[in-house]
Amino acid sequence: MHEYNRLTRVLVDKGYDALRYPAYVKIPSGYDYMTDPLDNPYGGFEYREDYIRKASFLTGCGLYAMGETCFHDLGFMGIDWRFENNNPVILCPYYKYDCMQNHALLRQTGETKGLCFCVCRRTDVYVYERSLEFVRNKSDTEKRYLYQEFIEKHNDRVCPVHMTYDEKRKAWNFRYDPIKCASDCTKSFCPVRGKTISAKRGNVFYDLMVRTRRKDDTFFDGQPVISLTKGKRFLPKPASIDICREIVKMGGEHIKKKEWWNRYSMWHIYDPDLQIEVQNVRAEVRENRDLMKDLEDIKNGIDVVHESDRVEDEKEKRRARKEQRKKKRVTTMEKKLVQYGFNMMDANDQRLAKKLFSEEELQMLEHEHLNTPIQMSLFDFQ
Fold first, then answer.
1. Number of folded domains that form the chain
2. What is the 3-state secondary structure (H, E, C) of the chain?
3. What is the pLDDT of residue 381?
4. Rounded to an integer, what distance in angstroms lies between the CA atom of residue 194 and that of residue 141?
5. Which residue among 301, 330, 354 closes a domain?
6. Residue 201 phi/psi, 5° resolution?
7. What is the pLDDT of residue 375?
8. Do 227 and 295 share a structural domain?
9. Alpha-carbon distance 150 to 157, whole Å?
10. Which residues contact residue 268 at a Cβ distance below 8 angstroms, ignoring those fewer than 6 apart?
């Protein structure tokens, strides 16, 4: 038996039940066919969305809010913060983490602070000039004004892709990150650099060296094992070569972190000797290979693999597996056509047969089926 929420307790006390209830509430979807529809994880009745979104709420500090701006159905510290319990929450626009007008469980006094939730309750009054919507609209207007002021101060040498707004400090921040340009920017003119970026497209290439030691309980146990993957691409798709050069200026530390946390950090748990190193970060239109350097690395005992070769090898293996599956389907379908005939197969097999064979091939297989001798049974003569 689930505990009723506050709304359901009030309605049940007034004599309502699962068959008769006000128009502004509903039984949660999926539970109306049960023996006791009110015995559900939501605590019984729920407000209709079109009704509660237009309802007004009031915080402890006197800030009004519409239902559409509230958060509900949140579980925290053993309490369900929801409309039906008359305790939905909003995000405090003033970031008063230790507000004494707020619920004691929602106050934050430590150094590490998360989202600043503020509880509110139902009210029949709504004053726009003292509402959350008014504060947010005013904040948006101030944000736009500060953005224009920031642009003028920096002589239009800013880009919205690299801009962030600090709600607490009421200030815009600019941090140039060329990786964002490669993924988000589609303009030909860069306001940050003050010039048109090159239309020539390329990528950021780098080499990844992986070091460890052999652990196989053989004569060679403990000897170093070094592999070097050359020509790895950092960007998922080509970008302007100018942007690629800016990414190269950032160095290889961010590339090493990406490689480490995406793959090698888990391997390091089982192999403490594992180390990785990013080398030769460069911006190129296409991968350039140095055969003499490859031979020198191989001579020094390094296992050298080019990423493009590895990717092509994987594609070739996938194509081979696909071709093998297709041959197997063709062989299986040929046996069915010869044994049963096209007209005796179900609709799905007929559609598949038409995809795998041409009309001439189907006719030949049907002819083979008709000319195949049938094994007779003694029971056929009884």
1. 4
2. CCCCCHHHHHHHHCCCCCCCCCCCEECCCCCCCCCCCCCCCCCCCEECHHHHCCCEEEECCCCEEEHHHCECCEEECCEEECHHHCCCEEECCCCCCCCCCCCHHHCCCCCCCCCCEEEEEEECCCCHHHEHHHHHHHHHHHHHHHHHHHHHHCCCCCCHHHEEEECCCCEEEECCCHHHHHHHCCCCEECCCCEECCCCEEEEEEEEEEEEECCCCCCCCCCEEEEEEEEEECCCCCEEHHHHHHHHHCCCHHHHHHHHHHHHHHHHHHCCCCEEEEEEEEEECCCCCCHHHHHHHHHCCCEEEEHHHHHHHHHHHHHHHHHHHHHHHHHHHHHHHHHHCHHHCCHHHHHHHHHHCCHHHHHHHHHHHHCCCCCCCHHHHC
3. 47
4. 28
5. 301
6. -105, 145
7. 58
8. yes
9. 10
10. 274
What are the angstrom distances between the C-alpha of 213 and each of 184, 208, 302? Answer: 41, 17, 13
Whether residues 231 and 157 fall in one domain: no
Q: For the whole model, what pTM was predicted?
A: 0.68
Does the residue 306 lie in any domain?
Answer: no
Mean pLDDT by 10 residues, the chain (382 residues): 83 85 84 75 85 90 90 83 89 86 83 80 90 90 90 86 84 88 82 86 93 85 89 91 91 92 91 92 90 88 89 92 92 87 86 88 84 62 50
- 348 assigned to some structural domain: yes
* pLDDT at 112 (0 to 100): 63
What pLDDT does 282 receive? 92
In a domain, 107, yes or no: yes
Residues 207 and 110 in one domain: no
Per the structure, the complete domain to which residue 18 belongs is given by: 6-126
- Answer yes or no: do 109 and 31 share one domain: yes
